[in-house]
Design brief:
By secondary structure, the protein is of the alpha+beta class. The protein contains 6 helices and 6 strands. α1 (33-46) runs antiparallel to α5 (127-143) and α3 crosses α4 (88-94). The radius of gyration is 16 Å and the shape is globular.
Amino acid sequence: MHDADRPPGASETSAARHRIALSCTVHVSQDVQDAARRAFEQALQRAHLHPAPERAARANPSATGEALSVYERGGAVADALFTGTGLSLLTTRVGPLSMKAVVVLTTRTADDQCRVIVSMVVGDEVAPEIAREMDAAIDDLVARGIVVEGPGWARAVDVPRESLGHPQTAREHGIRG
């Protein structure tokens, strides 16, 4: 059941019923944007992603007016091994720890609000794990009295095209490459 004090969780959306790359868009007050960003960064790290500054350095966030962080997990070799040789059955037993994922975290301020987008621009195998950790971070922010609003979860391709969180824009800026 949806809690009116927060956007719908991933499990409450139609996008989460499919194995696709997801995005989460929320709005917080500008005075708590740093706390929200830290909470989401920690959530991504709990989902076994690590900062990828070399990917972020390829992009030009000033072109979109966003602050940018990029996180990744796995790699091309592990991805090919697990998805290309039938070993994907192994991941159903031990989890998708080796599966490749690239996640973009952007913030953009306007007036007294900050829009935060967390978008899976590469990989969909780990979407449920990332969504679970992000939802826990949102719940924690709400429990601390921080107002979290916005549309919540959707497909990554539904992120506004001008945002670095859109998969095509991420590709054009070298984040996905």
